[in-house]
Amino acid sequence: MPIEIDVALEYELTGPAVLLTIEAANLPGQTVLDETLVVEGAQITPIAGEDGIGRRIWVHVQGDLLQLSYRAKVDVTQPKVPLEQLPPTPISKLPGRVWTYLRPSRFCQSDMFPGFVSRRFGALEGGARVAAIRDWVAEEMTYLPGTSTAATTAIDTFAAREGVCRDYAHVVCALARAANIPARYVSVYAPGVEPPDFHAVAQVWLDGDWHIVDATGMTEGHEAVIIAVGRDACDVAFMETESAATLVSQEIAVRRC
Which of 104, 90, 21 is nearest to 57 (CA)? Predict the structure, then answer.
């Protein structure tokens, strides 16, 4: 499925450099057919993305204003796979690169949830267990902007039962890892996201591959364009700066074509 992406950012900066993660990744299941990145009056230095997926860019701005436009057309060929039918992968057969996504991280304290996961989802395994976790998060939580911050963790969200896509993804990752299912945090572009923005989902490792799980219900894997992956939101922030940055305007449009 071809997906078109159109991003326009404008920020006031108090430092000369900013690290951005906004470009669609080239990887199995999605191919970048065409893209254009324009940053007014800036020097760009690319570096590899987390886990070798996608890339980040250092942007060195002349002055104190970041003005950027990014357009891309991406063909997503990831098949739509029924999650419930996917078998688990035994821990002893996990690839080395997947192991890190079983462990707790700063925002996904999975070591705090094994008891809850065992009691609530212990009768299930593999994709059926992940689907039950997804549905539980969707039913128990309320999508409510402004109720969480950049410091909110999966434990905070589990207690509050409210948040945004970042918080939903953190809880899914934490519960899946607590069930011994590798899970990573993923930033994506996807049609249907409201309000249009950089969107966060989880990916779980089942039956020898990664599969997208979105407890917000806004998108599915066969039409999500992956930007970056990591242990949690720390690894995939779309913007990182050493000093303050002030939003002037930000527009993101994603559409099927």
Answer: 21
pLDDT surpasses 90 at 63:
no
Number of domains in the chain: 2
Dihedral of alpha carbons 213, 223, 197, 38, sign: positive
Going 83 to 85 to 89 to 95, the CA torsion angle's sign is negative
Nearest to 130 by CA among 65, 201, 76, 43: 201
Residues 223 and 106 in one domain: yes
Distance CA 152, CA 103 (A): 19
For residue 154, give the nearest of 237, 234, 50, 240 by alpha carbon.
234
Same domain, 111 and 134: yes
Residue 177 sits in which domain range?
83-235
63 and 139 within one domain: no
Distance CA(30)–CA(138), nearest Å, equals 27
Q: Identify the band that residue 109 occupies on the pLDDT scale cut at 50, 70 and 90.
A: very high
Cβ 113 vs Cβ 174: under 8 Å: yes
**Residue 9: CATH number of its domain:** 2.60.40.2250
DSSP 90: P
Nearest to 102 by CA among 180, 219, 201: 180
Regarding pTM above 0.85, the answer is yes
Question: 94 and 21 in contact (C-beta within 8 Å)?
Answer: no
DSSP string across 58-125: EEEESSSEEEEEEEEEEEE------GGGPPPPPGGG--GGGGGGGS--SS--GGG-HHHHHHHHTT--
Q: What is the CATH number of the domain that holds 225?
A: 3.10.620.30
